[in-house]
Amino acid sequence: MAAEATRRSFAVRLxxxxxxxxxxxxxxxxxxxxxxxDETAVALGYKHDTKKVDAKKYPKHAATxxxxxxxxxxxxAADPWAGCAMFGRKHIAxxxxxxxxxxxxx
Length: 106
Ligand code: SF4
What we know:
High-Potential Iron-Sulfur Protein, Chain A, 2 strands, binds iron/sulfur cluster
């Protein structure tokens, strides 16, 4: 009987510990954001703000080109950050830009 109570007590404590470890506030689950200094970002000339793109280096860039009107943007139009096929799991800024920008169809 005592062994059964000990096992049950252990199981309860284990479940509580598992829940404590598994529960993390929602913000902590948010995807990591691309840094402009990340290797892929540098290679693609990515900037968080399309207005800060070097016009001499990227003469085909237009100020109207932003991540959230790019065909590779994976978020909704109003999302401030979302995924992009070029950056794997990391999120990029809606107002960002990189040299892989393509007009969103439609
Ligand atoms: Fe932004 Fe498009 Fe470049 Fe992705 S491919 S970072 S959505 S401009």
